[in-house]
Design brief:
The chain has 9 helices and 7 strands, in the order ααββββαββααααβαα. The chain is mainly alpha-helical.
Protein backbone atom coordinates (compact mmCIF):
# COMPACT_ATOMS: atom_id res chain seq x y z
CA UNK A 1 0.00 0.00 0.00
CA UNK A 2 1.53 3.32 -1.04
CA UNK A 3 1.70 6.44 1.15
CA UNK A 4 -1.08 8.27 -0.74
CA UNK A 5 -3.53 5.40 -0.25
CA UNK A 6 -2.60 5.14 3.44
CA UNK A 7 -3.25 8.87 3.96
CA UNK A 8 -6.61 8.64 2.17
CA UNK A 9 -7.77 5.66 4.24
CA UNK A 10 -6.46 7.26 7.43
CA UNK A 11 -8.53 10.38 6.70
CA UNK A 12 -11.67 8.23 6.66
CA UNK A 13 -10.62 6.36 9.77
CA UNK A 14 -10.29 3.07 7.89
CA UNK A 15 -6.56 2.63 8.37
CA UNK A 16 -4.32 3.20 11.35
CA UNK A 17 -0.65 3.43 10.53
CA UNK A 18 0.15 2.06 13.96
CA UNK A 19 -1.44 -1.22 12.82
CA UNK A 20 0.98 -1.38 9.91
CA UNK A 21 3.90 -0.63 12.22
CA UNK A 22 2.82 -3.17 14.82
CA UNK A 23 2.66 -5.89 12.19
CA UNK A 24 6.44 -5.69 11.85
CA UNK A 25 7.58 -4.58 15.29
CA UNK A 26 6.75 -4.78 18.98
CA UNK A 27 4.13 -2.37 20.27
CA UNK A 28 5.80 0.72 21.77
CA UNK A 29 3.39 3.11 23.52
CA UNK A 30 6.40 5.28 24.36
CA UNK A 31 6.76 6.15 20.66
CA UNK A 32 4.55 8.32 18.46
CA UNK A 33 4.13 7.92 14.70
CA UNK A 34 3.36 10.81 12.37
CA UNK A 35 0.09 10.11 10.55
CA UNK A 36 1.32 11.85 7.38
CA UNK A 37 4.85 10.55 6.75
CA UNK A 38 5.27 7.65 9.24
CA UNK A 39 8.21 9.29 11.02
CA UNK A 40 8.70 7.88 14.54
CA UNK A 41 9.54 9.99 17.61
CA UNK A 42 10.03 9.46 21.32
CA UNK A 43 6.85 10.41 23.16
CA UNK A 44 7.30 13.08 25.83
CA UNK A 45 5.11 15.15 28.11
CA UNK A 46 3.80 18.38 26.58
CA UNK A 47 3.06 21.54 28.54
CA UNK A 48 -0.30 23.30 28.32
CA UNK A 49 -0.86 24.70 24.79
CA UNK A 50 2.47 23.23 23.63
CA UNK A 51 2.34 21.42 20.29
CA UNK A 52 4.70 18.85 18.83
CA UNK A 53 5.19 18.81 15.06
CA UNK A 54 6.88 16.36 12.76
CA UNK A 55 10.35 17.52 11.74
CA UNK A 56 9.98 15.85 8.35
CA UNK A 57 6.58 17.11 7.14
CA UNK A 58 5.48 19.65 9.76
CA UNK A 59 2.25 17.85 10.69
CA UNK A 60 1.06 18.12 14.28
CA UNK A 61 1.63 14.87 16.19
CA UNK A 62 0.66 16.01 19.69
CA UNK A 63 -0.84 18.85 21.71
CA UNK A 64 -0.44 19.62 25.39
CA UNK A 65 -3.61 20.26 27.38
CA UNK A 66 -4.39 21.45 30.88
CA UNK A 67 -6.92 18.63 31.37
CA UNK A 68 -5.28 15.72 33.19
CA UNK A 69 -6.11 12.03 32.88
CA UNK A 70 -8.25 12.36 36.02
CA UNK A 71 -10.13 15.20 34.36
CA UNK A 72 -10.68 13.13 31.24
CA UNK A 73 -12.12 10.34 33.39
CA UNK A 74 -14.52 12.81 35.02
CA UNK A 75 -15.69 13.98 31.59
CA UNK A 76 -16.15 10.38 30.41
CA UNK A 77 -18.25 9.48 33.48
CA UNK A 78 -20.33 12.63 33.02
CA UNK A 79 -20.77 11.78 29.32
CA UNK A 80 -22.06 8.29 30.22
CA UNK A 81 -24.61 9.69 32.68
CA UNK A 82 -25.80 12.33 30.21
CA UNK A 83 -25.94 9.71 27.44
CA UNK A 84 -28.23 7.51 29.56
CA UNK A 85 -30.48 10.45 30.39
CA UNK A 86 -30.63 11.43 26.73
CA UNK A 87 -31.77 7.96 25.70
CA UNK A 88 -34.40 7.37 28.39
CA UNK A 89 -35.87 10.88 28.33
CA UNK A 90 -38.12 12.49 25.75
CA UNK A 91 -36.37 14.35 22.94
CA UNK A 92 -39.48 16.42 22.31
CA UNK A 93 -43.20 16.32 23.08
CA UNK A 94 -45.55 17.08 20.20
CA UNK A 95 -48.90 18.67 21.05
CA UNK A 96 -51.43 18.25 18.21
CA UNK A 97 -55.02 19.34 18.91
CA UNK A 98 -54.51 18.85 22.62
CA UNK A 99 -53.02 15.37 22.25
CA UNK A 100 -49.47 15.17 23.57
CA UNK A 101 -47.05 12.65 22.02
CA UNK A 102 -43.66 12.33 23.74
CA UNK A 103 -40.87 11.15 21.42
CA UNK A 104 -37.68 9.44 22.56
CA UNK A 105 -34.61 8.68 20.46
CA UNK A 106 -35.60 5.02 20.18
CA UNK A 107 -39.13 5.89 19.08
CA UNK A 108 -37.90 8.34 16.45
CA UNK A 109 -35.47 5.79 14.99
CA UNK A 110 -38.15 3.09 15.05
CA UNK A 111 -40.67 5.36 13.31
CA UNK A 112 -38.12 6.22 10.64
CA UNK A 113 -37.48 2.51 10.06
CA UNK A 114 -41.21 1.70 9.87
CA UNK A 115 -41.76 4.40 7.23
CA UNK A 116 -39.26 2.61 4.99
CA UNK A 117 -36.30 4.96 5.42
CA UNK A 118 -34.02 2.18 6.57
CA UNK A 119 -30.73 3.85 5.67
CA UNK A 120 -31.64 7.04 7.55
CA UNK A 121 -32.69 4.99 10.59
CA UNK A 122 -29.43 3.03 10.57
CA UNK A 123 -27.34 6.19 10.24
CA UNK A 124 -29.23 7.85 13.09
CA UNK A 125 -28.79 4.79 15.31
CA UNK A 126 -25.09 4.60 14.51
CA UNK A 127 -24.19 8.29 14.87
CA UNK A 128 -26.47 9.11 17.82
CA UNK A 129 -26.27 5.86 19.79
CA UNK A 130 -23.78 3.15 18.79
CA UNK A 131 -20.63 5.20 18.06
CA UNK A 132 -21.01 7.70 20.94
CA UNK A 133 -21.59 4.82 23.36
CA UNK A 134 -18.52 3.02 22.00
CA UNK A 135 -16.40 6.16 22.46
CA UNK A 136 -17.55 6.58 26.06
CA UNK A 137 -17.09 2.93 27.03
CA UNK A 138 -13.66 2.69 25.40
CA UNK A 139 -12.50 5.82 27.19
CA UNK A 140 -13.72 4.43 30.51
CA UNK A 141 -12.03 1.10 29.74
CA UNK A 142 -8.60 2.72 29.35
CA UNK A 143 -9.02 5.65 31.78
CA UNK A 144 -10.21 3.83 34.91
CA UNK A 145 -7.08 1.60 35.15
CA UNK A 146 -4.75 4.46 34.18
CA UNK A 147 -6.09 6.65 36.98
CA UNK A 148 -5.56 3.70 39.35
CA UNK A 149 -1.98 3.40 38.13
CA UNK A 150 -2.51 0.26 36.04
CA UNK A 151 -2.26 -0.31 32.30
CA UNK A 152 -5.27 -2.39 31.28
CA UNK A 153 -4.90 -5.58 29.25
CA UNK A 154 -5.68 -4.84 25.62
CA UNK A 155 -4.75 -1.19 26.02
CA UNK A 156 -3.27 -0.84 22.53
CA UNK A 157 -6.22 -2.44 20.63
CA UNK A 158 -8.63 -0.37 22.73
CA UNK A 159 -6.76 2.83 21.83
CA UNK A 160 -6.81 1.93 18.14
CA UNK A 161 -10.54 1.21 18.34
CA UNK A 162 -11.10 4.50 20.20
CA UNK A 163 -9.24 6.42 17.52
CA UNK A 164 -11.38 4.80 14.82
CA UNK A 165 -14.83 5.20 16.42
CA UNK A 166 -14.10 8.82 17.32
CA UNK A 167 -14.07 9.60 13.58
CA UNK A 168 -17.62 8.27 13.27
CA UNK A 169 -19.17 9.64 16.46
CA UNK A 170 -21.28 12.51 15.14
CA UNK A 171 -23.57 13.55 17.98
CA UNK A 172 -23.39 17.16 16.81
CA UNK A 173 -24.77 16.13 13.39
CA UNK A 174 -27.70 14.36 15.06
CA UNK A 175 -28.32 17.35 17.31
CA UNK A 176 -28.30 19.76 14.36
CA UNK A 177 -30.69 17.51 12.41
CA UNK A 178 -33.01 17.24 15.41
CA UNK A 179 -33.10 21.02 15.83
CA UNK A 180 -33.91 21.48 12.13
CA UNK A 181 -36.74 18.93 12.42
CA UNK A 182 -38.08 20.69 15.53
CA UNK A 183 -38.15 24.05 13.74
CA UNK A 184 -39.99 22.53 10.77
CA UNK A 185 -42.49 20.80 13.08
CA UNK A 186 -43.27 24.02 14.91
CA UNK A 187 -45.60 25.07 12.12
CA UNK A 188 -47.62 21.85 12.36
CA UNK A 189 -47.75 21.24 16.10
CA UNK A 190 -46.76 22.72 19.41
CA UNK A 191 -43.28 21.44 20.24
CA UNK A 192 -42.01 21.13 23.80
CA UNK A 193 -38.31 20.40 24.15
CA UNK A 194 -37.59 17.49 26.46
CA UNK A 195 -34.68 16.58 28.71
CA UNK A 196 -33.32 14.31 25.99
CA UNK A 197 -32.45 17.09 23.56
CA UNK A 198 -30.72 19.12 26.29
CA UNK A 199 -28.83 16.01 27.38
CA UNK A 200 -27.52 15.51 23.87
CA UNK A 201 -26.45 19.16 23.74
CA UNK A 202 -24.40 18.63 26.91
CA UNK A 203 -23.10 15.31 25.53
CA UNK A 204 -21.86 17.10 22.41
CA UNK A 205 -19.84 19.48 24.57
CA UNK A 206 -18.40 16.70 26.77
CA UNK A 207 -17.32 14.52 23.84
CA UNK A 208 -15.83 17.53 22.04
CA UNK A 209 -13.86 18.47 25.16
CA UNK A 210 -12.42 14.97 25.49
CA UNK A 211 -11.65 14.80 21.78
CA UNK A 212 -9.86 18.16 21.91
CA UNK A 213 -7.46 16.75 24.50
CA UNK A 214 -6.45 13.99 22.10
CA UNK A 215 -4.90 10.63 22.94
CA UNK A 216 -1.31 11.76 23.42
CA UNK A 217 -1.65 12.00 27.21
CA UNK A 218 -3.11 8.51 27.48
CA UNK A 219 -0.28 6.96 25.47
CA UNK A 220 2.20 8.88 27.61
CA UNK A 221 0.67 7.67 30.88
CA UNK A 222 0.60 4.08 29.59
CA UNK A 223 4.27 4.25 28.61
CA UNK A 224 5.15 5.38 32.14
CA UNK A 225 3.36 2.34 33.60
CA UNK A 226 5.27 -0.22 31.54
Amino acid sequence: MDATTRRLLTGYGLFDQRDDLAAHAHVRPDLVVCDECDAVYKRRALAHNETARCLRCGSMIGRGHALTVDGQLALAIAALLVFIIGNVSDIVTLNVAGVQSPVTLYESIRSTWVTGQHLVALLAAATAFAFPLAVILLRLYVLLPLVAGVRVNGFVPAMRALRWVTHWSMVEVFLFGALVAIVKSAGLASVILGAGIFSYAVLTFLLAANQAVGLHGLWRRASELR
